[in-house]
Every structure is written in structure tokens, then in C-alpha cells.
From TrEMBL:
It is found in: Cytoplasm. The lineage of its organism: Bacteria, Pseudomonadati, Bacteroidota, Cytophagia, Cytophagales. One of its GO terms (cellular component) is cytoplasm. Keywords: Cytoplasm, Dipeptidase, Hydrolase, Protease, Serine protease. NCBIfam families: PRK05282.1. Its main location: cytoplasm. It is an enzyme of class 3 (hydrolase). Belongs to the peptidase S51 family. This is dipeptidase E.
Length: 239
């Protein structure tokens, strides 16, 4: 499998512009490409597809990459099958997944990515790259017929992963707790991606980029911290 993916926790970190913190990794992913197809279906804060695409267009044009929105095409599936690369932005994961199925893009994306087309996602766009969307932080504001996602990787991801605040008086559930609950019913590993972190996947090789470690959760085991220099390849042989 010739996968070529960049899965980013968030599109913007504190003190940086849109996608600015991932510029180096994005340029490496898109080396030799002159265009990218943007899928704005997640619609953060209800933003229109046009306005979301216009926002995404700004940094890419600075990098010499032209951007078109999938909604601009009469046949979205054909647009995916002919794209040089695809970027799925963040927003609500349930809205995004429903639209991917309704527009018949799931199989097209799977086939293109498995043949080497560069794919990048941020937040919800990273969620849907996993096995299911069962570890999203988003509210289920729309009904989806299945939690099955694009399954470009055989594990789940929890973008925006947050550690418990040691001095907080909050008595509610932590991300660790919720992921442990997920693992009572599901076997696949979960990667907790902190803000500013991203996974670069080339074939069966997985590398962590960014300033933080990643927390990896395996069913019936204690969570583990992994550094960028660690070997993540076992995740490609997940359930």
C-alpha cells in the first residue's frame, strides 16, 4: 500500500495563522504537486462551503498550490478521482462523514489514497481518516448511518487530545476515561494527538511531527507516550 498522508490535530495553534504550524510538513506532502482539492463539508461554525474554501485557499496559494472546492464540481466523485491531492478540513465530524457518504466519496477517496494520492486532514478531516469516528470530540448534531470512516489507517485518532489539568477542580470525565470506555466495546488502537502534533504516514511508516509526544491507547493496556523518534509501525498492523 502506497499511502501518503498527513494527519494534523488542528488547523491553527496559539499564535499562528491557518495551517502555518504545519507548513513544512504540508510542503513535503505536496512536493511536485500544483493543485489540491479541498473538501469543506465539515463546515466549522456553519461556515459556507465557499467561505471555507476561500479560507483554505490563502495559505496554499502562498505556497504555489492552487485550491478548488469539491462543491464547485457537478460530479464530486469525479473531482476526487482526478485530483492531484485532497485536503479535508476540520469542523463537525458527523456532518463531514454524512456528506462524504451522501456524495459517494468514501470509496473514491479510499481507492485514490491507497494508490498514493496525497491526503491531508485537520481535526475532523483527521478523524475520518481512521477506522471509525468513535473517538471524535464532536457533538452528533446530525444522524449518520454508520460510524465507519475512510479507514485509510487501521486505528482511530483523537485530535485535540488534552491532558487533565493537575490543579483543576473539574470532577468530570477526562479524555483518557472516554477512550477507556471506547475500548470496552472496540479493539482498535487510538492515537491521542495533542495540539500542534501530526502524523506523517508513508506506506507502512508512521512518524510523529510537532512539539509534543502522542498518547497511544491499546485495549486492556495502560496508555503509552511515544516520542517523534519512536517506532509507530505497529499501528499499521492493528486490528
Amino acid at each position: 500500500m502506497s499511502r501518503n498522508l498527513l494527519l494534523i490535530s488542528t488547523s491553527t495553534t496559539h499564535g499562528t495563522g491557518y495551517l502555518e504550524h504545519a507548513e513544512e510538513e504540508i510542503k513535503a506532502l505536496l512536493q511536485g504537486k500544483s493543485s489540491i482539492l479541498f473538501i469543506p463539508y465539515a463546515r466549522p461554525s456553519g461556515i459556507s462551503h465557499k467561505d471555507y474554501t476561500d479560507k483554505a485557499r490563502v495559505p496554499f496559494e502562498k505556497w504555489g498550490i492552487s485550491v478548488t472546492g469539491v462543491h464547485e464540481y457537478d460530479n464530486p466523485e469525479k473531482a476526487v478521482r482526478e485530483a492531484e491531492a485532497v485536503f479535508i478540513g476540520g469542523g463537525n465530524t458527523f456532518v463531514l462523514l454524512r456528506n462524504l457518504y451522501q456524495n459517494k466519496l468514501v470509496q473514491a477517496l479510499q481507492e485514490r489514497v491507497n494508490k498514493g494520492m496525497p491526503y491531508m486532514g485537520t481535526s475532523a478531516g483527521t478523524n475520518v481518516a481512521g477506522k471509525t469516528i468513535g473517538t471524535t470530540n464532536d457533538m452528533p448534531i446530525v444522524h449518520v448511518k454508520t460510524f465507519d470512516a475512510l479507514q485509510l489507517v487501521p486505528f482511530n485518532i483523537n485530535p485535540h487530545f488534552q491532558d487533565p489539568e493537575p490543579n483543576s477542580k473539574h470532577m468530570g470525565e477526562t479524555r483518557d476515561t472516554r477512550i477507556a470506555e471506547f475500548h470496552h466495546h472496540n479493539r482498535q488502537p487510538v492515537v491521542g494527538l495533542r495540539e500542534g502534533s501530526m502524523l506523517r504516514i508513508q506506506g507502512d511508516r508512521i512518524r510523529l511531527h510537532g512539539p509534543h509526544t502522542a498518547r497511544i491507547f491499546l485495549q486492556s493496556e495502560k496508555p503509552m507516550e511515544f516520542k517523534p523518534s519512536d517506532d509507530f509501525s505497529f499501528l499499521t498492523e492493528a486490528y
